[in-house]
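User: Hey, my collaborator sent me this sequence without any context and asked if I could get a structure. I don't really work with proteins. Can you help?
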Amino acid sequence: MIRLLHTADWQIGKCYGQFEPDEAALLAEARFNTVERIAALALERQVDLVVVAGDVFDAQGVSDKTIHRLFHAMRGYAGPWLLIPGNHDAGLAESVWTRAARLTAIPDNVHVCLNAEPLLLEALGVAILPAPLTQRHTYNDLTEWFAGADTPAGMLRIGLAHGSVLGILAEEIDSANPIAAGRAEQARLDYLALGDWHGTKQVDARTWYSGTPETDRFKANDSGQTLLVELAGPGESAVVTSITTGQYLWQSLSMTLQVASDIDQVLLQLAEFGQTDVVKLVLSGQADLAGYRRLQASIAQAQGRARCLQADLSALRLEPTDEDIDAIQADGYLGEVIAELRAGQDGADADIVRDALALLAGILDERRAEATS
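Assistant: No problem. I've predicted the 3D structure and written it out in structure-token form, which is a compact way to encode the shape of the chain:
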């Protein structure tokens, strides 16, 4: 029985430019923490090896410090690690991998497969068949050589590749780095460990995408996991178990507001977010002044609790009620200004107009309160 962990798409050095700098730094740090958890998991489950199916790094130009930190994070597991380059960290003539070698950062138990040739782990009875990417995009199937590769009788044949299985994933990513459907069976593989798709996905009985072990986008693709693979022997069925390793839960919440009770529902959901949540909130529809102020206050509080919360209110129209207008005593010229702002929400500067309307209403409300106190 051979037990291994299958992981991929660590994307170490990812920048998260869509977030505030302090939030981006924490999300980037989480990727190192997740590698440490994978090493601890390998030790805990007493696996025989760990395979990493490409995109270990997010870019060729990561810093030397990042390279050293990554391999240090892997030191919790002293067994063999098998890595291949993916499209983000392709094995170019000069690459992050050649730099890591010059830095002597790669521990002895970490094998970076830069060539398309079998790697025999004789003590384990395992033959690794790697398909490393040597450029960012290829249009030939780099796993094709697996079928003709001779390996010693009785050894498990484990393929390691990074790309898109044709006909399985979305069409827009099927053109580059293709992998033929049915490759595991055709090449007599006991297991084919894939990377590139960031969610956990079973392709066939012997072929899986592990997905990224730390979620990195607002997409419901079953990410944030590592796969435990158990192989009883050559030709036997693979038993695959998904294990959660991600630190943060990315969630996308979209709602169209029509009535006051809709705002109540948003506030309830905002109140549930905590320090492990990364949230994208998109609101459309309409809200009166009181409801809009409640939303603003609740969003601000939730941003303090959640790890990250991005709120997009660009499609939300601010519609003061007659009671709102009466309460702030906006008659005459001010009434005309508010009417113009209400109408201006349909233009290109809708965000600015809506904020100006809310700000003006707030100022008038405060002055009215002062005048009556």
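In plain terms: The chain is about 30% helix and 25% strand. You can pass these tokens on to your collaborator as they are.
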